[in-house]
Amino acid sequence: MTFKAAFFDRDNTLVYRDKSIRNKRSELIRAWSGRDDTLSYEQSMALFDMAGYPDKFFYEHRNDEDICIKEEYLFWQRYNECYLKLLGVNDNVAERAAILNEMSWLKGIIAYPETVKTLDWFRAKGYKLGVISDTSPSLRLTIKQAGLDEYFDSYTCSAFAGVDKPDPKIFNMALESLGVSAAESLYVDDYYVEADGARNMGFTAFHIIRDGYDKGYEGERKWDIYSLYEMAEYAGRENT
């Protein structure tokens, strides 16, 4: 097999978020509301609806990244306002939401220790590289903030695809962006269902387990890795 491209998920695969920013945010929220900054996944999704996540706008304007990024920033302002109101904050809500937004917008995105080494290896071997992420239009800017933008040839986000992984549409968009087939491509994700979805399409797909966290998958464990560089080592052995 001759591999020509490698695709990467973003969060908990290439990069992680600085916990100190989250902690400072939580301290402010506690000071303003007297309540802890805790949200379940279901509550967070409900807030997305309350704040009016502009998924249709993103898809309809997918060829204009700049206007979509501006809309995304406004969405996070609304999201923070809704959250503060939910916690019972009624004074200076817009101003306080803006403070939270500025604290976290494109901030504290850090590459894992082996990320650059891995990307350097693939670049030196002539691979095309792409990011595939269930996220909003600022995907490229988040990778730039982490200092990794020089490595990547394409960015495929769910906001522009109109679907989330593991829908084949988002993977096909990524393949088309680099002009490669699934059989010619490697992929890595921290979610089993997304790695499996790519593998079912013909990718050689890995599941990366970060911080010893295992999401309880009971299927095939052959493709588990604990460092991104294991992906490069595999490619070095298998590429012919």
Structure in words:
- Helices cover 49% and strands 13% of the residues.
- The chain has 240 residues and is of the alpha/beta class.
- Helix 2 packs across helix 4 (65-86) and helix 4 packs across helix 5.
- It is globular and about 65 Å long.
- The termini are close together.
- The relative contact order is 0.17.
- The model has no long low-confidence stretch (mean pLDDT 94).
Strand order of the biggest β-sheet: 5-4-1-6-7-8
State which percent range the strand residues make up.
Answer: 5-15%
Shape: globular
**Strands, total number:** 8
Largest sheet: 6 strands, parallel
Which secondary structure elements does this structure contain, and how are they paired or packed?
Blueprint: E1 5-8, E2 15-17, H1 19-33, H2 41-51, H3 55-60, H4 65-86, H5 93-104, E3 109-111, H6 115-124, E4 128-133, H7 139-145, E5 154-157, H8 158-161, H9 168-178, E6 185-189, H10 192-200, E7 204-208, E8 224-225, H11 229-238
Parallel strand pairs: 1-4, 1-6, 4-5, 6-7, 7-8
Antiparallel strand pairs: 2-3
Helix pairs in contact: 2-4, 4-5
